[in-house]
Amino acid sequence: MAASNETSGLELDQNEIESNWDEIVDNFDNMNLSPELLRGIYAYGFERPSTIQQRAILPVIKGRDVIAQAQSGTGKTATFSISALQKLDVSNPQCQALILAPTRELAQQIQKVVIALGDFMKIQCHACIGGTNVRDDMKILEAGAQVVVGTPGRVFDMINRGALKTDNMKMFILDEADEMLSRGFKDQIYDVFQRLPPSTQVVLLSATMPAEVMEVTTKFMRDPIRILVKKDELTLEGIKQFYVAVEKEEWKLDTLCDLYETVTSLPVNMEQGQREVIMKEFRSGSSRVLIATDLLARGIDVQQ
Fold it and tell me: Where in this chain does the record put each DEAD-box RNA helicase Q domain (predicted)?
């Protein structure tokens, strides 16, 4: 973690970085992961690492600052979750890895992945998000959670209140960095960063690399590894994609209802309790179609 204005070697055209790391490990067994973590990975259903996981897990585990650029659905969440879990001192209950995400849904999804992958490690992971009870957050954090994931505002509030201690922090992870910065979280991210130990490792993940994201990398990171997974390297196995031509904007909802009957939506300004009810309906299958913004959709992981 460092303040630096060095930007040479970074390719800003088309919002893409230029990779400077070509080492690939195509098997989880060859990543020097703990036996307990490997059990969690295979129990979660992973068989082999995705393209981004093959390239990014190893340098993160080695302690390098890493910038990883890849589209949603490529396995970025498991990439930094596996890396963070491997670096934890499980005997220390204090927060050692802090993950920031742009939405509550994405933060909660990351928490679920971390807990599942770390199932055999006996670790604690807590999600700090708006719309939940502040006192409950403080109580859980004061008891100890090795991994904390949350939205920038609530996380900074918990640090300010002294509930989230940063003394033992090893890793600071920014997920969907482009979305966080586009939503106006820049000042809060910088405020959180200022409270971390100078030796904290920084990992940044983003689908695009606009100038404001590059500015963050130059201020926060030391000689970072840069990894780009291009769109033509991606595959979407088992996912059907199709479109329906609708002549007028106002006909869209009726068309979806004709196709699927039960349609629900997830507006950004919806109360947390209502959001959770809608997500439960969608996961159970009682609602077959969920209409959400692109950003909210990034935090939704439903198997069927």
Answer: 26-54
Instruction: Show the domain range for 284.
Output: 249-297
Q: pLDDT grade, residue 152 (50/70/90)?
A: very high
> Does the residue 3 lie in any domain?
no
Strands (E), the chain: 66-69, 97-100, 125-128, 147-150, 171-174, 201-206, 225-228, 263-265, 289-291
Decide if 292 is inside a domain.
yes
Residue 224 has what pLDDT? 95
Quote the crossing angle between the two packed helices 272-284 and 104-117, to the nearest 10°: 60
Helix, strand, coil tally for the chain in percent (to 5): 40, 10, 45
Closest CA to 73 of 213, 214, 237: 237
- What would the pLDDT profile of 83-136 be if each residue is shown by its tens digit? 999 999 999 999 999 999 999 989 999 999 999 999 999 999 999 998 889 999
What does the DSSP assignment read for 133-164?
A: -HHHHHHHHHH--SEEEE-HHHHHHHHHTTSS
Nearest to 65 by CA among 188, 170, 187: 170
- For residue 173, being part of any structural domain is answered with yes
Alpha-helical regions (H) of 118-261:
134-143, 152-160, 177-182, 186-194, 211-220, 252-260
Look up the CATH number of the domain holding residue 66: 3.40.50.300
Clarify whether residues 25 and 82 are in a common domain: yes
pLDDT for 1 equals 55
Dump pLDDT digits (tens) for 64-74.
Answer: 999 999 887 78
pTM > 0.85: yes or no: no
Per the CB < 8 A criterion, the answer to whether 38 and 20 are in contact is no
Residue 200 and residue 94: Cα distance in Å, rounded? Answer: 15
